What does this fold into?
Amino acid sequence: MLLNLPSPRGRNIYRGYAGDFGLAGTIADETLLPIHLAYGASAAKRQGCEYDVADAQVLRYGSSQAVDVVRRSTPDILVSWLALPSLHDDLALLDEIKRAVPGVVVVALGAVCNVMPEEVLLKSNVDMAVCGWYPHYNLISQAIQVLRSSGPGQAAFDKIGGARYLKQGQMVQSPIEPCEETLDELALDVYRQLPIQKYLRDVPDIRGSTIKCISIATSTGCPYACMYCPYPIGYGRKVTHKSIPRILDELESLKTNFAVTGFSFRDQLFTHNKQRVEDLCDEMVRRDLNVKWHVEARADEVTDGLLTKMRRAGCFRIHYGVETGSPEMLRKTGKPGLEIDMAKKAFKMTKEMGIATTAHMMLGLPGENQETLKISLDLLCQINPDVASLNVTTPYPGTKLFRMADEKGWLSTRDWSRYTSFDAIMRTDELTTAQLSEARKVMRRRFRNFKLRHDSEYRRLYLKALPKAVLGRLASLFRS
Ligand code: SF4
It folds into this structure.
């Protein structure tokens, strides 16, 4: 059985995000398509075994309903994905499942298993924490094959690449290397086993009209080593591409069978291979798909020609990681090769192309102080994106930043439930976590005021959305 664990009460976990560590989201009723669940189901299907797939999160199950669903299925093997902000709850629930379904072999996956398998194994009765790369198709195929032919037990675990398990209270590791991953093996009919319409998320275009989008991955992995970034940990350093015909078939199938016409491409480096992007865009136009999509891209990887093709093929928004306005901080901690001027140029070209822009900034990178915060706000106002996403830096375990923060005593907690990507849990030499939280609020407010003063379209959309936002706020106050 493949089980997407429920979110703990009062939280909304986006599993698979933040490099597969998972984010604790801010929109209570939003669930993003768990791409890993679709790949897990594909692996089980292609192995020819009877299997169940359940997304307890989108069905808003509590713990007891999730246990019941597994009890009814009585699987031999249960595969689940752990997230850092919900780790405690995830492990407690898996333990409850093990008590309720005697004999089930519980296999845990996710970036957490890559960097802290011992913590997973020692704090739970999970049988195996397996190191591997998102979305784990090959890993799950291998685990099913081995466990079906050899039965559960340490001899079998040793034949699974990246498996870690306990032997007499000590963690041991399979001698086989973790599996490389593949993206072409997604079985499109597994989408029929998931409530696809519940995963659609509104994403605004440049005119503020919202487009309902579903998440898909056309490539995974990143060879870069930005010190703060968890993606290479959970998705691997090797870039794996889905073939262009497979991408097109997937888009077409979702459009034809589920009337989905908006897509969130979840690739870390969508524009890394320009020729591939051009070929993909050409093929989308040739097949007259008529869909809309948005992507993340590196500002130093886009050109006028590439943006023209992307726009023609339906790209309506690009998210750029700007990170900071300080050139020195960017050089030390940011993306190799990216310069502030490149970011400015990319935003200008993208806007001129009629594509909406989102700038992602991180507050609290090493070296952050009041002066660098001001420089970042100035840059934000210069590039003037449609949306600014301002987050405080979370040092994910396994990153260079986490090691640095640990050594320097910058971490305020090791309570993983606070590693949400929104809580300030790391200070810098000059700013406390409280100052960073406050700085985030102030920057958001100042940028909003800047947009209200200088962007008539933003002003129009802001005023239009205001009554709904006020009602939503009041509703949440009454609920709490
Ligand atoms: S380029 Fe850097 S920030 Fe982007 S995914 Fe790769 S390591 Fe992460």
